[in-house]
Please model this.
Amino acid sequence: MALFGFCCRVELIFGPGALARLGEAARTLGMTRVLLVSDPGMVAAGHYQRGADILERAGVTVLPFHDFGCNPDTEMVERGAAFAAGLNIDGIIGLGGGSSLDCAKGINFVLTNGAPMRQFHGWGKATRPMLPMIAAPTTAGTGSEAQSYALISDAETHVKMACGDPKAAFRMAILDPELLVSQPDGVRAAAGYDAVSHAIETWVTTKRSPLSSALSREAWRLLDGSFERVFARPDDVEACGNLQLGAFLAGLAIENSMLGAAHACANPLTATYGTTHGVAIAALLPHVVRWNEPVVGGAYRELSPDLPARLETLAAAAGLPVRLAPLAVPREDFPSLAEAAASQWTGRFNPRPFDAAGALEVYECAY
Ligand SMILES: [Fe+2]
Model:
């Protein structure tokens, strides 16, 4: 039996209406002046104002930051940290999708440790204490609320950097399924399928453990059972809750098991063509599962008798492509994309040994 560790750093509050607990959660963590990081879409949807009102009613002063995009990069994060520097804040809250949550973490690194974002690429680079943080996700997807990694793009190279530190974990995550009802369809699809891919990839990595496997399996059960329901009826709060909890558990599985070749092959598409992460993942995941089948086919069949076909059905329910051709990825770029995929850190944990030749096979199969 292999040696393994397990860690969960975040306290969870889950259920319809849970956002109402945001003020009390902030007070519990000693917050009196918070930076509320929430993207412009959250302002338009009214979620930002609701969150701010709940905090103000609890006596917490709210200082907003909205000046960032859907793929937070080093410049946006550093702008946020410069803005927060003079505000004397004692906590940070991310309210929104994965971009708001990752941006909140990135700002915390730069603000408290006084160095450019690039210096935190990797694991454990923060030497000084960081501010306590709360996550209130409004999408079911990245699972950022369960992880101590921030995914921040390099503003010059567009490479997605995973910047992790135990101190960068959210202290609390508030999962309110009612917040998911207003997600735009495209966001619901790309984010939801990303969560599915996290359950599938963590289930078979070389780093998986009995505990990460329990998380991956339950995440898959919840996501598989409610994914189509959410697309048929976006106001089905129970199905939204299953998706949100599934995404959280899958995120916790990543924290303990890492990811695999679908993420390694997807990241260069986002860096090169700006392809939305979940869309790139949908076009690749069924093919990666087929490519891995000679090594872990039995494990996949524990989840579904024909997992690649099931994954294609889920993508179709969300209106996502299951091939690269519709994404207009030029085939002649495959060799350079494969080189970039092989250098991705997540590829190292794929169950079938993964290199540039393997990545090229995956892209060709997915075309
Ligand atoms: Fe992902």
